[in-house]
Amino acid sequence: EEEDNTVVISPTHCPGGCLDVTITDDTEITEPCDELKKLGQNAEVSGALYQTQIYSVSSNIEKGYSIRKNIALATKAIPYPQNAGTGTSIRVPFAANQYGNVHCHPIGDTYQMFSGTDIFGLYTLSQTYLTSFDPTATTDLFVNIITTPGYDYAIKIDNPTKLATIAQYFTNPDDAEDFDEMLRDFIASKCRPDRPNPSTPEKVFLDFVTGAYDFHTGIGNFDFGISLYERPNNERTTTNNNWTKIELDENGNRKEIPCN
To answer: Is the pLDDT of residue 8 over 80?
Structure first.
């Protein structure tokens, strides 16, 4: 995500009370899937997904929306402002009633997967959302979604304590940019079409964020306690939950767990 990294968000306090980081059963996917289904049933979020998908295939401008709750706790999708200057990237000011993001990467950007900034953004959502505003909220609520020409992808929080370790890579703009570039380069190198057996962005992303280690690059040993969900964007529906959780099995191969 081409955010304005001249200002790095380092949430250090939540005036209304941060979410409890008590770890629950990480093997259960029912609640994250239910939250994704609720988003699919929301007309404004559906519209945001549709609009960002259009931009992902027809524009050099990044498009994004914040997902928020209003005073009645109804979900709303609010467009992000564009950055000053070229206006090709979005500016992401987080809000105390915001629990999600939807965005795309511009056409021509071959990187169609979550960036390090996107992971940090998921963490930031969990730290800036006020429990005094929405006392029923749990970590299953928070989500970051990216739309691509063929798929919608979502990341959700499994383990808040592990996710908090992402903050050490975003203490200043230079470190944030370095971490973003490391993840982008890692995925690009593994998915090059000229490789004998090119990988997929989903698999390499999971290799990077779930503790796998690559001997040749020395990149790995990250475990950010997040999970990845995928859905073909031509299968969006307000009635069925067509998301699938993507994991890696013990051999590092792709494993699919349908939400339905």
So the answer is: no
